[in-house]
Amino acid sequence: MGLSFCGNDRGSNAYSVDNGVLDNGCFVDALNLVPHVFLLFITFPILFIGWGSQSSKVQIHHNTWLHFPGHNLRWILTFTLLFVHVCEIAEGIVSNTQMESSHLHLFMPALMGFIAATTSVVYYHNIETANFPKLLLALFIYWILAFITKMIKLWKFAEASLGVQHLRFCITALLVILYGLLMAVEINVIRVRKYVFFANPQRVKPPEDLQDLGVRFLQPFVNLLSKATYWWMNPLIIGAHKRPIELKKIGKLPIAMRALTNYLSLKDAYEEQKQNTDDPEKSPSIWRSMYRAFGRPILLSSTFRFTADLLGFAGPLCISGIVEHLNSTTEIDKTNKTGNMILGVYHMYSTELLQNTSVLAVLLFLALVLQRTFLQASYYVTIETGINLRGALLAMIYNKILRLSTSNMSMGEMTLGQINNLVAIETNQLMWFLFLCPNLWAMPVQIIMGVILLYYLLGNSAIIGAGVILLLAPVQYLIATKLADTQKSTLDYSTDRLKKTTEILKGIKLLKLYAWDNIFCDSVEETREKELTSLKTFALYTSMSIFMNAAIPIAAVLATFVTHAYIEEDRLSPAKAFASLALFHILVTPLFLLSTVVRFAVKALVSVQKLGEFLQSDEIGDDSWRNGEMSMPLESGKKYKYPGDTKAINRKGRYRMDNYEQPMRRQLRPTETEDVAVQINDGYFTWGSSLSTLSDINIRIPTGQLTMIVGQVGCGKSSLLLAMLGEMQTISGKVYWSKLPDCEIHLDGNISGHDSGLSYEERSKNRHSVAYAAQKSWLLNATVEDNITFGSPFNKQRYKAVIDACSLQPDIDLLPFGDQTEIGERGINLSGGQRQRICVARALYQNTNIVFLIIAMKDGSVLREGTLKDIQTHDVELYEHWKTLMNRQDQELEKETELESQTTLERKTLRRAFYSREAKNQIDDEDEEEEVEEDEDDNMSTTTSRRSKIPWRVCWRYLSSGGFLMVFLMVSSKLAKHSVMVAIDYWLAAWTSSNQRNESLVDPFANSANSTQNTEHHSYVPVFIILCGAAIALCLITSLTVEFLGVAAATNLHHNLLNKIIHAPIRFFDITPLGQILNRFSADTNIIDQHIPPTLESLTRSTLLCLSAIGIIAFVTPTFLIALVPLAVAFYFIQKYFRVASRDLQDLDDSTQLPLLCHFSETAEGLTTIRAFRHEARFKQRMLELTDTNNTAYLFLSAANRWLEVRTDYLGAMIVLTAAVAAIWSSSQSGLVGLGLTYALTVTNYLNWVVRNLADLEVQMAAVKKVNSFLSTESENYEGSMDVSQVPEDWPQHGEIKIQDLCVRYDPVLKPVLKHVNAHINPGQKVGICGRTGSGKSSLSLAFFNMVDVFEGKIVIDGIDICKLPLQTLRSRLSIILQDPVLFSGSIRLNLDPERTCTDDRLWEALEIAQLKNMVKALPGGLDAVVTEGGENFSVGQRQLFCLARAFVRKSSILIMDEATASIDMATENILQKVVMTAFADRTVVTIAHLVSSILEAEQVLVFSSGNLVECDSAANLLKQEDSVFHLLVQTHK
After folding, report:
1. Confidence bin at 116 (pLDDT 50/70/90)
2. Most CB within 10 Å of its CB: which of 252, 369, 518, 1377?
3. φ, ψ for residue 1490, nearest 5 deg
4. What are phi and psi of 963, to 5 degrees?
């Protein structure tokens, strides 16, 4: 019988039990089978029948998950148990080969034990998921039985004098310990949960997080296996293929990971240090606080990391073992064999097992799997900790921002930029430092271990190899620092370029109309040239870094093996050669990364220092003043009614103090004393300097009345408000707030000539909240409605009333989505007036009964207090002054004062005062376009992203824009480099194999089998040196070609993009949001410049490495190809699913980061408002929510990366296993086997990089795709049908315009905007064009410049049809003044004459005509004085006059004014009209009027109505006809 349980060797009585049952080894083994069989019999029915009926039980929602006590320990013990069982099986099988017949009892019980252990853990998992602990009894009984049977076996072994040197004894002892521990775990579960033997079992609820169905991040709650392999991520990643991942899908964070939790632990650690220090001046150490709060997980991660690194060295050692023992005989000495026969079977020595190649292959596989699992666990823990730390730091910074003292912000000690840097840069630096933190101590250990092993393998020559690596490491560090510097300078240039591009895009209409587009385009190209020079330096350093990384190991291997050949006596065996090769591969990574880690550590030190300074900066005073000594319980607030009188306080100046004797102050009535909302006694306040800004302030602000604070600019009105709000530092005096539950409203705004703040008081149930509208409008990035309600409950009537009071309705009607329109960051899509109106509305929302009251002030002291009537009697001069002021704004004021119809008065004066001449209905088109990128773009990308195809066409477009020569160079050098690398290793295999006398590798080397040491040097070493040299040279070439291909592509793409966009028709800018165009120049260009080249390099490198590895393994052992098919299929699906999910998660991470950063900058800008409203808590809550959302996305992204890496690593381990097994079975030559296995090991490192880089490249190629979509834009036809030489030099000399049957449209698909217009304008005539909005007035002005599609008819100017002219010529010969004055940053000269064709005299003359000469003369630099971005350093009126001067510099006989006076005040408008009449007396002037009054003197008026010319005559004639449209327009516009 070939197979029998106890074997049937000759002469053996395997089945006899004469010496006692237990002395028969086979019986003891059979006894060991019993517990395993018992477990399988009990658990299988429960698993299959019990759960089969409710199979959904296993996939139930996570809210029922509950870990039993000792959960993780049980999993670890079970895995160890499985590993020991594998060893036991291996030992049994190897021992069995030494027996005459098969002894099943040697490995059968072990196999059953393995199955039983696997079953136990599956069974346990199901019981745990169902929370039904009673069934654990089965496991408890199993552990006891297994423990007892193994004890018997161990006792018998000890009796038979087996010791530690025998492997089976060790394994049995280990099993006894493991079963004992598992039994203890089981007892512990019974002790804690009391589910048997106790009267009342413990009721347990799942953790709080799991009861909340919104928590989807399950890493902390799943079992250990799922934790290690990220199995719980499967549904999310596979589901992403069908439907994009949205924020809803990733849910909330578990409580332990939320920013608030982490903030509290960090803050406690920080505060604790504050209390413990003796020296109050010394600031607490942030490092120590971070260690206190986050030290434990970092230590855990480091432990994982050390374990992984140590396991990493198992690879080279196993290779060495496999190659060494491959051809050595496995026959054991017979004499030895009989000595090892104990209890009738063979017992191995512990060392023997490790000489078996198959066992080594399995060990190599297990070591790889474990190493990778530990490594990924270490990464995950550090990333999670890093994210937690970032959340805590953000919360800490935010809390500090809310407490920053106002003077800190206004005095410039803390700028917004600094705060934004803290949030965006410093916290991320620290987070990254934490990610890389374990490397700081793991890497040196790894390097030292590696060098020791190399020394053990190769002796002294290893030291030389390691020396080469260590000598070149500082060079790496140097390159890394250079890279960082170059990146900084590149950033500066690109910021500059972006600024210029933004200006061009904002003023594109003007540039086209003046034919200046090419001049400004060149200035951008100039900056781009500088940026590209910097980029080339960057590319050079990057390629050096990549080159060093690739060349160092080659140089080290070269140095080591050549030295070894000449120094050492013994020959280099394949086992040693390939083990050391694998070790060099391991060593390179830490050395390459070490420079990065050190750089990050340095940055982290700087960041912590900045953070420390910020956290130590001044804070606002204590808030106790709000509830001063006058405070009483909330309930005491009753509704009071107040006498409706008005009162005022005047501030004129100390010099008149004597005129007003104290008795002249009106005595406060008794009732009023109680009705004080705010009272300041002897207040002296300062902004942080020793001088007091406000001095001797004694005021009482009565409740329920309107108080106005007036005074000249800079007399301290705003400061008075801020002093009441507690924003200023109090030197002495007290601010009392009313005991009533008041809600005050403070408006700080500009009232016409006298800059004055308004403060209203009024009550609501909210106790210490003060509604405050600052002078500088501050809006949230939210809807209009949210900005007005500002966190209060929505009340429709009140909301409507407030909107009417602030006359916001017309503005709301103009917005695309009414009051649900999102306001962009800093209110970018609103005009200044609209922003201010919304701020007032926010303060007025809740507004009820208000009465009128005034305070006048000057130079920081209050002078006059009393009602309007008092001031009228006591200070006539002041009253008169005010009256004229009000008159100028509203002539009805006096009547209304007499009528004292308070509410209407308040509304009108307030409104008029705030927006004296605001063109309410005018909305700034350009700003509106700046709304965040259109959704259409995103929708397009989401639909395409579902198709997981890689955008090959876009990749090709990118490569081709780099130039075909570069692409060819890159491809050929890459292939050459990898071929040479393979050749080096193959040569090494040939060389080392030839050293083993009895072996020859392949035919070419057959004759060298008996070569001497000398010939070996001659034949092998030189070739080896040449190959290594060639490889190093090729490394340099490839790294350079890839980087410079990237630079070439970036150059071409940007150049084409800029030219296409600048020459695009004006229609393109009307329909494409500015933000979208700018994105192409900022984010997308940045990706193309800096991110694609390294990704491309990394992708090609890792792909070629993997391919060459697989090629070599297949060459060594062709059978490997069979196993490769399933692995390739698995790999294909893994990368396919991962790429889609990764892209979605990356988008989520990006899109959730922006609102977070915006929220920080918004808060810093609106500090006083938030504090006045007392909304700190609400804003903190919002910040925590935004942080958590961003952290969730980031955590999921990193978990997805771990998911991928674990899977690709396991695939890599499978490749190593199959390669090893195939090599062992095919018994190839040892040199080649070593070569194959070394390459198989590299695959594990590079497989996941292939997928990661593919995913990154795909995301980055989207940028190329977006840029490409703009490259297909049609350009304007710049050529024209006439040649420039045919146009007279001085054309148009007269300025005669004939419009014949003109039809105009903006786009062939749109309706015409002008229909069959005929008109004739004589030279020098002044023509007015009017009509209602949208009647086609402005379209006509654009038609003169051929900016729109003239599809029928023509415009003839001085005998030439303008459509035939080259655009440059036409536009450079006409002048236009636009409605929106556009100035560019630079000098005044640049704005008047960018072409530099005019003399200074001509420019001064133009400025004089425009009434600007004196002002410009007064500026430093005169004509070269600085103009800031958008001309912000001039008023709107001055800007408009500059535009006039600009038109005058170009002495054209035709001037077109397109609603040029729409955005300026009366005074400037009068100047403009005068100038036009005198300076342009002999020229043709076409005025498009927004107010008909401006063209009443015109010699000819064209009246348009919906695209048709309806009337054409002189203004006087048209006015006489009462039924004319013009007459009607004049009537309505009066």
Report:
1. very high
2. 1377
3. -95, -25
4. 100, 135
